[in-house]
């Protein structure tokens, strides 16, 4: 529950703003602790060497809401009290990403799983594939341990903890870490140059993004085109997308939409499905749904293999249909009840996004709806739309936090820059999504807030008029 109730344990500073921040920190901490207590597994320790049951839960909305306030309030308090030069210099040193990349590429977290009591950095270095310099590796491990990733049990002796366990190679979050710190980092490193280069600065074409600027000497004209030149990384990218879904809690849509109330045989068409991770979970949980997966031929062939392994009965009984198509050039199968897209719109500049939506709208029946499953950006200023945001279950933060929770929703802003760097695209606000829909003849009728992700429901404009 998000609240700012007074607490007698909060120090009264004489500053109304700081007192409110302190109260937010106390109450959001209490809310988070309550969720851990409800789990029956006790409270986590910063030095725990095993994962807590809540570490991989996708439907922990109350915990996510509490942390959204806690992170926003802590960051705001620190920024208020610290000297600006302190804060700015710290933010200009994004070294952790490359340190974690080194850990993932050399499977150091995997290695430490065999040594729960810890291993000296000299031994860790000797066991790595390329026989790393132990002094240098110690500097890397020291930074990560200082940030709570790994535990230094004695001088230069490290063991895994809850954070570093996510860097084990079998964890898809580790693949996402590598994607962020290697492939995506290419675009961020050259973003200032790409945004001022005469050939790249003004255009919104995906072929002239910061990423294509970074890899232009390799002849790749798109992010996905680069993978065609580096097929050895394609599997890791696919694994990373599973990790991203876990972090975002994407599977929460399975249990937080009234699927079970729908008639037997209700059709769910995933447009740009990939292998169909979300539909696979839906099909297992809600047998009344009939699934259609549509994507490019290569993705559809991978989907067939996955479903054959994970849910062969769906194939045998005809509960799932696979159909290759290109959503830029074609319409999906007509007259489906739900047309669903996850992380499709954010890859596309407005003109391409409208084209996709128009291709769907052309084959919708009057009762059809489109579900767009993405991040919805919240405004950083308070406006007349705040009342509407409350009505659509997108509650904004109370003052003195920014209405978009500031650092409490930092990953939204990072993803926004990610889309800019990779595709010249963006994460959109509710108003921007509404405008896209209207350009394609669709009306935004509902926004379901899943804390980090949202589901926007569209129907044809003037249906039944």
From TrEMBL:
The keyword Acyltransferase does not apply. CDD domains: AdoMet_MTases. It comes from the Eukaryota. InterPro entries: COMT-like, COMT_C, SAM-dependent_MTases_sf, WH-like_DNA-bd_sf, WH_DNA-bd_sf. Keywords: Methyltransferase, S-adenosyl-L-methionine, Transferase. Pfam families: Methyltransf_2. GO terms for biological process: methylation. Residues 221-394 form the O-methyltransferase C-terminal domain. GO terms for molecular function: O-methyltransferase activity. The keyword S-adenosyl-L-methionine applies. PROSITE patterns: SAM_OMT_II (PS51683). This is O-methyltransferase C-terminal domain-containing protein. It comes from Tetrapyrgos nigripes.
């Amino acid at each position: 529950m998000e609240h700012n109730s007074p607490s007698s344990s909060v120090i009264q500073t004489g500053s109304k703003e700081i007192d409110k921040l302190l109260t937010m920190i106390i109450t959001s901490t209490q809310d988070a602790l309550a969720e851990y207590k409800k789990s029956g597994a006790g409270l986590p320790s910063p030095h725990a060497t095993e994962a807590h049951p809540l570490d991989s839960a996708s439907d922990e909305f109350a915990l996510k809401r509490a942390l959204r306030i806690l992170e926003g309030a802590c960051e705001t308090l620190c920024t208020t009290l610290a000297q600006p030069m302190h804060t700015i210099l710290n933010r200009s040193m994004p070294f952790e990403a490359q340190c974690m990349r080194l850990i993932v590429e050399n499977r150091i977290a995997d290695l430490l799983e065999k040594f729960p009591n810890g291993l000296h950095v000299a031994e860790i270095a000797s066991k790595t594939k390329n026989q790393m310099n132990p002094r240098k590796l110690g500097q890397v491990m020291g930074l990560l341990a200082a940030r709570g990733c790994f535990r230094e049990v004695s001088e230069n002796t490290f063991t895994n903890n809850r954070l570093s366990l996510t860097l084990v190679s079998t964890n898809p979050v580790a693949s996402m870490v590598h994607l962020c710190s290697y492939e995506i980092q290419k675009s961020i490193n050259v973003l200032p140059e790409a945004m001022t280069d005469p050939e790249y600065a003004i255009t919104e074409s995906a072929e002239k993004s910061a990423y294509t600027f970074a890899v232009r000497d390799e002849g790749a004209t798109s992010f996905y085109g680069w993978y065609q030149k580096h097929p050895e990384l394609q599997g890791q990218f696919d694994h990373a997308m599973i990790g991203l879904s876990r972090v975002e809690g994407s599977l929460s849509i399975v249990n937080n939409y009234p699927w079970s109330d729908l008639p037997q045989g209700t059709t769910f068409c995933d447009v740009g499905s990939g292998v169909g991770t979300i539909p696979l979970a839906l099909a297992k949980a809600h047998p009344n749904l009939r699934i259609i997966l549509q994507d490019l031929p290569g993705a559809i062939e991978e989907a067939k293999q996955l479903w054959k392994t994970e849910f062969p009965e769906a194939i045998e009984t005809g509960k799932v249909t696979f159909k290759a198509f290109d959503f830029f050039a074609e319409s999906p199968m007509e007259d489906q009840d739900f047309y669903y897209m996850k992380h499709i719109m954010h890859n596309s500049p407005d003109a391409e996004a409208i084209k996709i939506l128009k291709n769907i709208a052309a084959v919708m029946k009057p009762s059809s709806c489109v579900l767009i499953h993405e991040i919805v950006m919240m405004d950083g200023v308070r406006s007349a739309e705040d009342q509407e945001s409350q009505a659509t279950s997108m509650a904004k933060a109370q003052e003195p936090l920014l209405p978009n929770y500031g650092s409490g929703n930092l990953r939204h802003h990072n993803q926004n820059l990610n889309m800019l760097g990779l595709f010249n695209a963006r994460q959109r606000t509710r108003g921007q999504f509404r405008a896209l829909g209207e350009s394609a003849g669709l009306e935004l009728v509902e926004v379901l807030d899943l804390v980090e992700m949202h589901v926007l429901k569209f129907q044809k404009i003037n249906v039944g008029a």
